[in-house]
Design brief:
The chain is mainly β and 280 residues long. It is built from five helices and nine strands, in the order βαβββββββαβααα. The chain is extended.
């Protein structure tokens, strides 16, 4: 049996020192989704709207997830279950073709609303904490309810399609978003156009996401030992190691000269240099 247990896979004969009670977040329910969101209205910047009105066609670009707003509400007829309302804010860029000139890059906002129902258990306790509030006069945290916490994990979506629509073909029920957070608006550098005049652009996105409900809870966990770092802090006062000696240990970057057979993230040589303690 080893004298000290290290982080990683544990052998069956490893000795457990004690059982401790820890305070952590427990996941009560979760779900994953692959949403194909069709025909989201594209709210362009004011400069981009002028380009769209003269555009003959649109070529798709990319979408970036800017922010996610989450709201959790209990379901009255099914105790322990909650609705999780999620609103995704995207920054979408595309290329507009105006006549025979080179394509002009345009950008704008797309918004996608989603609702899921998850189990989050029940809890009626009022939660207090002695932790101080940042920049406060040593005030304790305010009392909070015992609702579960919703967490959304999402990646940037894939732009699947873009559709340019004439003003007369716009949908009558296609209304404007109610509110856009200032932090989202500031990501565009200029005012967005929410009006109904002019041509419109509709975007189809593919979104991958994981949504879960968590609660603070106390769990009994086995403990092997205190986790003491074994690695020494190197190069704290300067870099005395020979850079040529570091370079000699770097593998030749074969993938940089020949296409790799699989998408493995490229050569390891640059990761070795980056992770070297004297090169951080």
């Amino acid at each position: 049996m080893p004298d000290k247990i290290m982080p990683g896979p544990v052998q069956e004969n490893a000795c457990i020192r004690e059982a401790v009670c820890i305070h952590t977040k427990k996941i009560y329910d979760s779900c994953k989704d692959k949403d194909c969101v069709e025909d989201l209205r594209f709210y362009p910047t004011q400069d981009a709207q002028c380009v769209i009105d003269r555009a003959l066609s649109i070529r798709g670009g990319k979408a970036t997830l800017l922010n996610v707003y989450i709201d959790v509400e209990p379901i009255g007829f099914n105790r322990g279950f909650y609705t999780v309302d999620v609103r995704y804010f995207y920054r979408v860029t595309a290329e507009a073709f105006v006549g025979a000139a080179r394509p002009v890059e345009i950008c704008g906002l797309c918004v996608f609303d989603k609702r899921v129902i998850l189990f989050g258990s029940e809890g009626n306790a009022k939660v207090f904490s002695s932790e101080t509030v940042a920049d406060g006069a040593d005030c304790q945290n305010l009392r909070r309810s015992n609702l579960p916490t919703a967490v959304v994990e999402a990646v940037d979506p894939i732009v699947l399609n873009m559709k340019l629509v004439e003003p007369c073909d716009c949908r009558p029920c296609d209304c404007c978003v109610n509110e856009v957070p200032p932090a989202v608006c500031s990501s565009f550098g200029c005012e967005l156009s929410f009006g109904g005049e002019g041509k419109r652009l509709y975007v189809t996105l593919g979104q991958f996401s994981i949504i879960r409900l968590e609660r603070d809870t106390q769990l009994l966990m086995p403990v092997y030992d205190y986790c003491m770092p074994e690695k020494e802090c190197a190069c704290g006062g300067g870099n005395d190691e020979d850079p040529c000696e570091i370079f000699r240990h770097v593998k030749f970057p074969v993938d940089e000269f020949f296409p790799p057979n699989s998408m493995n993230g490229g050569s390891d040589c640059y990761r070795e240099i980056k992770n070297h303690p004297c090169c951080s």
